[in-house]
Structures are given as structure tokens and as C-alpha cells.
């Protein structure tokens, strides 16, 4: 993704510097001193993209990043045949449920409403969004049509720079994280992945916001740690609308040597949680590995 961002940034910067150098003799001299239009554009574009990565994800000074992204992944079957939609994708059962997995079918529109009513109104996020993954065999036009926000952010960044202004971090961060966290190798295209990207604002950023507006209310999302692994693994607990259960439409029971027992476990859990969902047993055969 970085290479594509560099190319797009170069195109935007090159076009703007071409105009900017015509505005005054001093501007023209500045571009010449930087090695000419092409070199100046290339260096500026690369530095701009690098600065986005550093500020958003890995600050060099050891400070907390603006916000760290966490991802929930879903597999969409909207373009698959009827059998797969009803029984699940064999490669997914093999990869994620080799000994009896379960697939939760969720209406993403309803799921997003549920998330908005919980996380978005409760905590401060640099980015919280749900969207289709773009694979790296997509064309440049397809990529930047989907991620048009990053194009606008690049354009605004250079305009602010040329005007001697400082860009607002949030204006850059949100479209940047949306782009880099929803881009994946084409080898995984079969999954037709949809991602929920949750990137809560760090304590450092919230403290800085309070310095500017002391009476505002900030809502830090706490990062938790999975203590059963070493080193401990950070994670977020995502909660939706507290007044309704997660909108699960259907649960598919994966290939298993005793699907009836698995089904009873699911129904018991649904009853305990006071949730309603269709329960279906996948007809994909269970194969015992030797």
C-alpha cells in the first residue's frame, strides 16, 4: 500500500508544485534548488507519506501514537454461490474451525448501527469504520475511488504546507488509517473480507485536547491484554447498543463429528443470552485427519 500511496502523493504534489512555482520567481528558485520539479515532488511525496505512517502508527520519539488500529474481520459471501451462502466456505472452516467452528451471519448495516449506538457514542476514536477490504490486484482507480479521503488529505496537507499552516491531525489520520488497514494481498481475495477498524484516540491525544479545551468531556477507550499468551497481547472489547443484543441473523454449525451436540450448545447459549437467530448445520462433510 505504501508504494501506491507514494505514487498518488507524487501525482498530487507534482501537479500542485507545477502551479506553485509559476506564482512567483522565489517559488521557482525554491523548486530549482530542490533538484527540479520531479525530484522535489518525489522527495516531498515520500516524506509526506512517511510522516503519515510515523505520526499515526509509530512515532520515532517513543511517544504514544495518535491512535492504534484494532481489526475485526468478517467473510462476506454476497458473491458466492447458493451452497456456500447456506453452508459456509470450506477453506474458512479449515482455516478457522478445523474442529467444529461456528459462523455468525450478520447484516452489516444493522451491525454498524449497533456499533454506532455503543462504541461511537461512548468513546473517542480516531477511526471507527466498517468496510470492504480492497485487494492489491485492484487498479489504481479502484483503490483511490474507494479511498478518496486519502486523496483529499494529501491535497489539503500540501495546501496547508504551502500556506504555512499546520494540518489538523484528525483530518489526515482518519482517511489514512481507513486506507492502510483495508488493503490486503490478493491471495486472500477468496475471503471477500469486510473489516471493522477501531482505533481509539490515545491518552496523549486526549490530554492535548483537554489543554486546548479544558471543559470538554473526553472518553478514553481502555486497551485490555490477553494474559494467557506471552508477551501479553493487546485487544479491545467492542460493545454495541446496550439495549439490544448483537444483530446475529443466523448461526451455521461447521463440519463436526457431532453436530447435534454443537447445535444444542448453540441453542443453550442463545437462550442464556436471550437472543434469537436461525441455527443451521452445514452439510459440508466432516473429514477426519489421519
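Q: What amino acid sequence fits the structure above?
A:
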Amino acid at each position: 500500500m505504501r508504494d501506491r500511496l507514494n505514487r498518488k502523493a507524487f501525482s498530487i504534489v507534482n501537479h500542485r508544485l507545477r502551479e506553485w512555482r509559476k506564482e512567483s520567481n522565489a517559488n521557482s528558485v525554491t523548486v530549482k534548488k530542490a533538484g527540479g520539479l520531479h525530484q522535489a515532488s518525489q522527495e516531498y511525496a515520500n516524506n509526506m507519506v512517511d510522516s503519515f505512517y510515523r505520526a499515526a502508527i509509530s512515532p520515532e520519539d517513543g511517544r504514544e501514537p495518535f491512535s492504534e488500529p484494532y481489526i475485526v474481520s468478517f467473510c462476506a459471501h454476497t458473491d458466492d454461490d447458493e451452497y456456500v451462502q447456506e453452508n459456509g466456505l470450506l477453506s474458512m472452516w479449515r482455516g478457522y474451525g478445523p474442529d467444529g467452528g461456528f459462523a455468525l451471519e450478520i447484516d452489516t448495516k444493522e451491525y454498524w448501527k449497533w456499533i454506532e449506538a455503543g462504541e461511537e457514542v461512548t468513546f473517542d476514536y480516531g477511526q471507527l469504520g466498517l468496510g470492504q477490504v480492497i485487494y492489491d490486484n485492484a487498479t489504481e482507480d479502484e483503490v483511490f475511488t474507494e479511498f478518496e479521503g486519502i486523496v483529499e488529505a494529501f491535497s489539503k496537507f500540501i495546501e496547508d504546507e504551502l500556506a504555512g499552516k499546520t494540518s489538523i491531525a484528525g483530518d489526515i489520520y482518519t482517511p489514512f488509517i481507513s486506507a492502510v488497514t483495508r488493503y490486503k494481498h490478493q491471495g486472500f481475495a477468496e475471503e471477500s473480507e469486510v473489516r471493522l477498524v477501531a482505533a481509539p484516540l490515545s491518552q496523549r491525544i486526549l490530554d492535548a485536547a483537554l489543554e486546548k479545551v479544558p471543559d470538554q468531556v473526553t472518553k478514553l477507550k481502555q486497551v485490555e491484554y490477553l494474559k494467557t499468551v506471552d508477551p501479553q497481547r493487546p485487544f479491545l472489547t467492542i460493545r454495541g447498543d446496550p439495549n439490544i443484543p448483537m444483530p446475529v441473523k443466523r448461526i451455521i454449525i461447521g463440519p463436526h463429528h457431532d453436530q447435534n451436540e454443537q447445535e444444542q450448545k448453540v441453542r443453550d447459549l442463545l437462550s442464556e443470552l436471550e437472543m434469537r437467530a436461525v441455527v443451521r448445520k452445514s452439510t459440508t462433510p466432516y473429514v477426519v485427519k489421519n
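Q: And what stands out in the fold?
A: The chain has a mean pLDDT of 88.
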